[in-house]
């Protein structure tokens, strides 16, 4: 396959690569890194630096930036990362703006499989999994003798820092019931969450790390703990980045998941409650060694390389389209890639 020139459009909110938190920015950087290793030319530009060029893929990640490209007559690929589309619901400004961005694209991707059906008003939206740097997020070489729980998330929803979207309460209550230590890691925003949910601070085996950890610190935390908790009620990525980082680190997981892609070592809870988290933890502990060994066997399959291999094929086909980007044309490109 000939090399492809790609422009990833920066969000303009956090530097790329991010020095700590920043999921979309981390994804953009992963695309750049892996696609370049595959022999492609990838630049990261702000939207005001992007011009229409033949045989160049422009990949946008924020709805208003996609629409700005559309208004400038620049064909673009769009990635939907916005969980607020589902939270606010159909007919909301956020949903309509994302739908408009999808309809105006050559092809669009969602990283949560169920959102393909949710955006039923278009057939330009397709699933593309997230990945992980399996060369960086490595398993611990030393097996811990005592179980330690880990949650890694930026809690809150729609500007309400006290909203428990990530299920911190269920994780802490489960840890307390089982008398297990638990560490909750994330951005400084989590301090606001706990200031609004002070009753959770009473557990003496709870450690809160709200310092926007670096990648190195995050890797260390995965390696120092034994079970990852993710009882989240709303995600625009299934699997999201932390699930795959935990999987790459061979850290068995207890949490919610709405996807068909099998994540080895994930104990799925169908209802978000303290009881279901407790049951998932106990089931994981009872079969821990076997679960972790299975995770070790398949961890390499989650790497960004395999995601970008598929993405490269989409890009290659999208470049061939020079006429109107109607739904039938987009569907044809998609089928070609999967055949």
CATH architecture of the largest domain: 3-Layer(aba) Sandwich
Cα-based radius of gyration, to the nearest Å: 20 Å
Total number of helices: 13
How far do the termini sit from each other? 16 Å
Let me know the largest β-sheet.
7 strands, parallel
**Proportion of residues in extended strands:** 15-25%
| Element string (H = helix, E = strand) | EHEEHEHHEHEEHEHEHEEHEEHHHH
How many separate structural domains?
2
CATH class type of the largest domain = Alpha Beta
Helix/strand/pairing class, anyone? Answer: alpha/beta
CATH fold-level topology of the largest domain:
Rossmann fold
- The averaged pLDDT comes out at 92
Percent of residues in helical segments? 25-40%
Low-confidence stretches: none
- CATH homolog superfamily of the largest domain: Glycogen Phosphorylase B
Question: Can you count the beta strands?
Answer: 13
Give the gist of this structure.
With 339 residues, the chain is of the alpha/beta class. The protein contains 13 helices and 13 strands.
Keywords:
Rossmann fold; alpha/beta; 339 residues; globular; seven-stranded parallel sheet; 40% helix
Report on this model:
It contains 13 helices and 13 strands. The chain has helices at residues 23-37, 63-71, 84-88, 93-103, 114-118, 168-178, 189-196, 215-224, 241-248, 274-286, 288-298, 304-319, 327-338; strands at 5-9, 41-45, 56-60, 77-80, 107-112, 125-127, 149-152, 182-185, 206-209, 227-230, 237-238, 253-255, 266-268. It folds into two domains: 5-131 and 303-338, Rossmann fold (3-Layer(aba) Sandwich); 149-301, Rossmann fold (3-Layer(aba) Sandwich). The protein is of the alpha/beta class and 339 residues long. The strands form two sheets. Strands 1, 2, 3, 4, 5, 6 and 11 form a seven-stranded parallel beta sheet that branches. Strands 9-8-7-10-12-13 form a six-stranded parallel beta sheet, with helices on both faces. 40% of the residues lie in helices and 15% in strands.
């Amino acid at each position: 396959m000939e090399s492809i020139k790609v422009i990833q459009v920066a969000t303009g909110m956090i530097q790329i690569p991010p020095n700590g938190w920043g999921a979309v920015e981390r994804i953009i950087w992963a695309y750049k890194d892996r696609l370049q290793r595959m022999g492609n030319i990838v630049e990261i530009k702000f939207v005001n630096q992007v011009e229409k060029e033949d045989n160049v893929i422009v990949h946008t990640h924020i709805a208003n930036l996609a629409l700005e490209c559309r208004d400038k007559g620049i064909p673009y690929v769009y990635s939907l990362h916005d969980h607020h589309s589902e939270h606010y619901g159909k007919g909301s400004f956020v949903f309509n703006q994302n739908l408009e961005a999808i309809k105006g694209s050559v092809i669009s991707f969602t990283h949560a499989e169920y959102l393909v059906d949710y955006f039923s008003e278009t057939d330009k939206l397709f699933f593309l999994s997230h990945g992980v740097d399996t060369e960086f997020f490595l398993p611990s070489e030393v097996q811990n003798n005592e179980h330690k729980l880990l949650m890694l998330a930026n809690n809150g929803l729609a500007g309400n820092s006290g909203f428990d979207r990530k299920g911190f309460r269920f994780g802490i209550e489960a840890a307390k019931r089982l008398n297990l230590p638990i560490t909750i890691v994330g951005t400084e925003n989590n301090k606001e969450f706990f200031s609004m949910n002070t009753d959770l601070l009473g557990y003496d085996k709870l450690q809160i790390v709200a310092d926007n950890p670096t990648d190195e610190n995050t890797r260390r935390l995965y390696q120092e703990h034994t079970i990852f908790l993710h009882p989240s009620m709303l995600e625009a990525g299934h699997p999201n980045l932390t699930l795959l980082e935990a999987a790459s680190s061979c850290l068995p997981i207890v949490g919610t998941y709405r996807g068909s892609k099998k994540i080895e070592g994930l104990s799925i809870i169908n209802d978000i409650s303290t009881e279901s988290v407790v049951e998932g933890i106990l089931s994981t502990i009872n079969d821990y060694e076997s679960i972790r060994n299975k995770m070790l066997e398949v961890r390499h399959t989650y790497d960004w390389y395999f995601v970008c291999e598929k993405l490269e094929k989409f890009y290659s086909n999208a470049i061939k389209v020079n006429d109107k980007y109607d739904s039938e044309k987009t569907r044809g490109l998609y089928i070609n890639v999967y055949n």
